[in-house]
Amino acid sequence: MTTLDVAYLSQQILNLAPDAILFADQQGIIRLWNRGAEEIFGFTAEEALGQSLDLIIPERLRAAHWEGYHRVMASGETRYGSDLLSVPALHRDGHQISCEFSIVMLKDGAGKLLGIASILRDVSARREREKALKDQIAAYKNQLSNNR
């Protein structure tokens, strides 16, 4: 496989992935936004590029997010490593979605941190099913304790 083929395949993966793939620079400005991000968050690339990550962060979580983001940008290190993280996020229409994501810290050739890439998946439907199941279990336990 030639270098051109790998570059082409990489671009195809980025463009066609159903997961959101995005990159935010040191200031938290969105610089990369794939088709999966468009589908999950409802913003086109043209609308998202150049915007702050606040675009998809619920207002009540922004202060904590930026505190951690700026700390990571200053230190160049994150405590999350390759952990899968879970967060609520915002869709363009204002409704909240549940996302799981991993991050990749990207550095230049000299080792200077450029920003963070994220791969996110909307897990809202699964979360709703899990909550419904927990509610059913709680109701069943309550019914059992009331029958004693």
Provide the fold topology.
Elements: H1 3-16, E1 20-25, E2 30-33, H2 35-41, H3 45-48, H4 62-75, E3 85-90, E4 96-107, E5 113-122, H5 124-146
Antiparallel strand pairs: 1-2, 1-5, 3-4, 4-5
Write a brief structural summary.
By secondary structure, this protein is an alpha+beta fold. It is built from 5 helices and 5 strands, in the order αββαααβββα.
Number of strands: 5
Range of helix content: 40-55%
- Profile the largest sheet: 5 strands, antiparallel
* Termini Cα gap: 70 Å
- The pLDDT mean sits at 92
Spatial ordering of strands, largest sheet: 2-1-5-4-3
Please trace the helix and strand order, writing H or E for each element.
Answer: HEEHHHEEEH
Task: Write up this protein.
This protein is an alpha+beta fold. Helices cover 42% and strands 26% of the residues. The chain is built from five helices and five strands, in the order αββαααβββα.
Any key phrases for this structure?
about 150 residues; alpha+beta; five-stranded antiparallel beta sheet; 5 helices
